[in-house]
Amino acid sequence: MQRNRSLWLLLIILFLILAVWYWLRSDTMRHGTIVARVGPRVITFERFEQEMVRRGTQSGNLDKKKVLEELVEREMLLVQALEQGVDSDPEVIKNYHNLLIGSLKKKLLTPQLDSVIASDAEISTYYNAHIEEYTHPPTVHFALLFLSTHAKMDDEQRTQVKARMQEARKEALLLSEKEHGFGPLAIHYSEDQATRYTGGDIGWLHKGRATRWEAPVVDAGFALSGNNQVSEVIATNQGVYLVKRIQAKEGMVQPLAEVSSRIRHKLVLEKGQGVQQTFMDDMKRRTPIETYWEVVEKRPLPGSKVEMESPELPKRP
């Protein structure tokens, strides 16, 4: 009887040894050579080796033990995060999903975008078809003086305002060519607060483009043929003006060589948008999608005081 018990005990021990050996062998077959266990997770030699390569084994300065300890610490924190339910946090799930989407686009979409080009012929065609975008009209740098009038003024008062501007014109004709705009005359003879302290300088105006100045004033300015020329006194419903031409630039068309890089960027961007749309259309074709707009339409917005029962989802046929 004692002998039979010893035999059974020996068989049980052998069975346990075989079970442990088989478990270790199958674990190794599943994971490869294991160098550490952290809770239910394992670190294989292959992973350790990959980490060493990632950090640059060629440097010869890597501490194997430190690298392994850092991998263990990372797995330890991961185990604790899972035990704490961090993987169920909505923000974590959202970030994980965003990472998956980003990886998908990097794998499937990025290579397509990287292959998008704009040929020289396409650039030239676009340039010729949109030549107005690269055509700059004549521009003139002006200064002006302005004295206001209003509807309640009688003829005598208007005449006095105009006479004052005539005096300003006489003084303007005596200014040195080195004087910027109307110089100090703008302080004494102009009511335009934005320009009276800068010699009446109103900047560059493009012919044919809208501006805050009245059309007769702009037309009179562009009619001046030389720099430092002063117009006659111009009377409008708003007041009287005096215009001086400071400098002018002729209209020009930018050559293709100057704008080709800009056009190339634009064309590549437009083509890229088309590639992205094609990618999204392809994803839609691959993915079964059902949208229940009526549910969304009937539900109150978050924070709304409207109370209603949640409508049932449409049943599948």
Summarize the entry for a quick read.
The chain has eleven helices and eight strands. It has helices spanning about 1-30, 45-55, 65-85, 90-110, 110-115, 120-130, 155-175, 185-190, 215-225, 255-285, 295-300, and strands spanning about 35-40, 40-45, 135, 140-150, 200-205, 235, 240-250, 250-255. The model has no long low-confidence stretch (mean pLDDT about 90).
Topology:
Elements: H1 2-31, E1 34-38, E2 41-44, H2 45-55, H3 64-83, H4 90-108, H5 110-114, H6 120-129, E3 135-136, E4 139-148, H7 155-173, H8 185-189, E5 201-206, H9 215-223, E6 234-235, E7 239-249, E8 252-253, H10 256-286, H11 293-298
Antiparallel strand pairs: 1-2, 3-8, 4-5, 4-7, 6-7
Helix pairs in contact: 6-10
Model description:
The protein is an alpha+beta fold. The protein contains 11 helices and 8 strands. The chain has helices spanning 2-31, 45-55, 64-83, 90-108, 110-114, 120-129, 155-173, 185-189, 215-223, 256-286, 293-298, and strands spanning 34-38, 41-44, 135-136, 139-148, 201-206, 234-235, 239-249, 252-253. β1 and β2 form a beta hairpin. α6 packs across α10 (256-286). It is elongated.
